[in-house]
Write a structure and sequence with these properties.
Blueprint lengths: L12 H11 L20 H12 L22 H23 L3 H17 L5 H16 L3 H21 L4 H17 L1 H22 L4 H12 L9 H17 L12 H6 L2
Helix pairs in contact: 1-3, 1-4, 4-5, 5-6, 5-7, 6-7, 7-8, 7-9, 9-10
C-alpha cells in the first residue's frame, strides 16, 4: 500500500491528504505537499500544508495571526501540529467507514475519496489500493452483469496504477486475485478457466513476495470451499487452508494503521 507509511501517519503527507479528501478538497492553494513534514521544520511546503488545513476548516491560527488564512508561514510549529492532530480524527473516521460500508452508494462515496487522494499522492499505492478494493466490493453487490464488469474495470484501472507504483507489493497481487472471482461470477462457464488460472498466478506472486500474507491463504481457502469436490475442492480441502490463514492472521502485523489489515474476522467465521 513505501517509506512514507513506515513513518508516523500523523505527520505523513498521505495521512494529511486523506483527511483533506474527507473534507472535500485535497489541493493546496499554491501547491501540493509532496514530502513528510514534521514539527520544527521550515519548508515552503509547510505553507501549502497550512493552506490546506485552513481551507478545510482546521485553522492553524486565529484570524489575523501567523498561520491563519492568508497569513500562512513556512514554519511547522505547535499550532500547525494541533491542526493536523484535529484532522487525524477525520482520517480515522474515513478509514473506518471504508470497512463498515455495506451498500453500493457507501462504497462509491469511499472510492471517490480515495480517487481524489490518488490524484494528489501520485507516488503512493495505498489510495489506489483502497479505491480498487471499494469497486471490487461494489461488484459483489451489483446484479447487472454489464454494470458489474464496469465496476471491475474501474477496480482494475486503479489496481494497474498501483502496481505501476509498487510492482513488488504482495497486497496488490493479492487484491488482483481477489478481483478475479467477481469476473468469474458474471459467466462461470465462459470465464472460469481463464480467470481461475489468472487468479492462481496472482496469488502465487503475492506469496512469493510475502509468504506470510494471510489474505492469500484466506482467499485460496474460500475458492477451494466453493469448488466442487470432483475438481479438488470442498469443505474438507478448504479447512486446512482456513487454519493456515487463521495462523497467519494471528501473527500478522500491518506496516501502519492504514495498511491492509482485513479478512481475519471473516476467516474466523469459517472455522
Amino acid at each position: 500500500m513505501s517509506n512514507l507509511f513506515k513513518s508516523k501517519i500523523l505527520l505523513g503527507v498521505f495521512a494529511i491528504a486523506l483527511m483533506f479528501a474527507v473534507a472535500g478538497s485535497a489541493m493546496a492553494a499554491d501547491g501540493a505537499v509532496t514530502k513528510t513534514l514534521r514539527q520544527g521544520m521550515r519548508d515552503t511546503q509547510v505553507k501549502y500544508l497550512q493552506q490546506m488545513l485552513n481551507e478545510n476548516g482546521y485553522t492553524v491560527g486565529a484570524a489575523g495571526k501567523a498561520g491563519s488564512a492568508g497569513m500562512e508561514t513556512t514554519y511547522f510549529g505547535p499550532a500547525t501540529k494541533a491542526a493536523v492532530v484535529a484532522f487525524q480524527k477525520a482520517m480515522t473516521t474515513s478509514i473506518r467507514k471504508l470497512f463498515q460500508a455495506k451498500t453500493i452508494p457507501e462504497f462509491v462515496e469511499v472510492a471517490n475519496r480515495f480517487e481524489r487522494i490518488s490524484q494528489i499522492e501520485k507516488s503512493e499505492w495505498l489510495p489506489l489500493y483502497y479505491a480498487s478494493y471499494s469497486y471490487i466490493m461494489i461488484s459483489f453487490q451489483e446484479t447487472d452483469p454489464a454494470k458489474k464488469d464496469e465496476m471491475l474495470d474501474q477496480a482494475q484501472k486503479f489496481l494497474d496504477q498501483a502496481m505501476a507504483i509498487a510492482p513488488n507489493e504482495s497486497e496488490l497481487y493479492m487484491l488482483q486475485g481477489f478481483l478475479y472471482p467477481s469476473r468469474i461470477n458474471i459467466d462461470p462457464m465462459a470465464r472460469g478457466m481463464k480467470y481461475i488460472g489468472e487468479m492462481n498466478k496472482a496469488l502465487d506472486k503475492a506469496l512469493e513476495l510475502n509468504p506470510d500474507n494471510p489474505r492469500v491463504y484466506y482467499l485460496r481457502a474460500t475458492m477451494t470451499l466453493h469448488t466442487p469436490e470432483a475438481y479438488g475442492g470442498g469443505a474438507a480441502k478448504a479447512l486446512p487452508l482456513y487454519r493456515a490463514a487463521d495462523e497467519k492472521f494471528r501473527i500478522f502485523k500491518p506496516e501502519s494503521d492504514i495498511s491492509p489489515n482485513w479478512g481475519r474476522e471473516i476467516c474466523e467465521t469459517e472455522l
